[in-house]
Every structure is written in structure tokens, then in C-alpha cells.
Amino acid sequence: MSDEQREPILRVVPRPGDINANGHIFGGWVLSQMDIAAGIVAARRADGAVATVAIETMQFIAPVLLHDVISIYAEIERTGRTSMGIRIEVIASRDRGTEEVKVTGGLFTFVALDEQHRPRALPPL
């Protein structure tokens, strides 16, 4: 992802209930935030309902800590007839914003849905 004045799709602060036994934030919590952000981008491109159909790649690079503010960046990497791949990057801001750490990233695939929840063609750009 290019760094030129990019804005996060979502910014979230984990809560104490999101901590696992190691004192880090549950990976599933982070994954759900990524899915929400990617879904926003996908729904905008599809101009309607979408569904996550695959997580093609995702890697946890560093733990998310309780007082982190996470920023989730998402952009369309590829499109097909009914689907699109959304590249996601999660950056944690730590120590009152003095440190930024890439904690995870991934590629999520979404499909555009019609009123019967079946795949439909993406609208032209």
C-alpha cells in the first residue's frame, strides 16, 4: 500500500475483555476488525451487499497490546466479474502515538451479492 496521505478505513481501541491469557489481544478480534474494514471497501466498490468468501493470506507479525490504537488500511488489489481481493494492513500506534508497529496484514476475497444472496456482477467503474 502506498503511504501517500492514506487514511485508515477503521480505527479501533481494544478493550480489556479482548485480552487473551498472554496479555495480548485475541487474534480473532483483530481478524474481525480486518473483515469489517475490508467489507466497507468491498461494499463501496460493489455498490451493495457483499460477503467474505476467503481469507487467502494473513500473518500475525506482532501482538496487539491493550493500549494500542489500531488503524486498519484496506484497498482493492484485484477484481474479477463478481469478486474482489482486498489487501489489508493493520498498524498499531503505541506509547501515546510515539511508536507505530505493523501487526498484521492479509488478502480477503469478497463477492458482490444480489437480493437472493447469490453472486452478481460488479458494476462498471
Automatic annotation (TrEMBL):
The keyword Hydrolase applies. It holds the Pfam family 4HBT. The keyword Membrane does not apply. PANTHER family: ACYL COENZYME A THIOESTER HYDROLASE (PTHR11049), ACYL-COA THIOESTER HYDROLASE YCIA (PTHR11049:SF5). InterPro entries: Cytosol_ACT, HOTDOG_ACOT, HotDog_dom_sf, Thioestr_dom. Belongs to the acyl coenzyme A hydrolase family. Keywords: Hydrolase. This is Acyl-CoA thioesterase. It comes from the Bacteria. Gene3D superfamilies: Hotdog Thioesterase (3.10.129.10). Residues 4-116 form the HotDog ACOT-type domain.
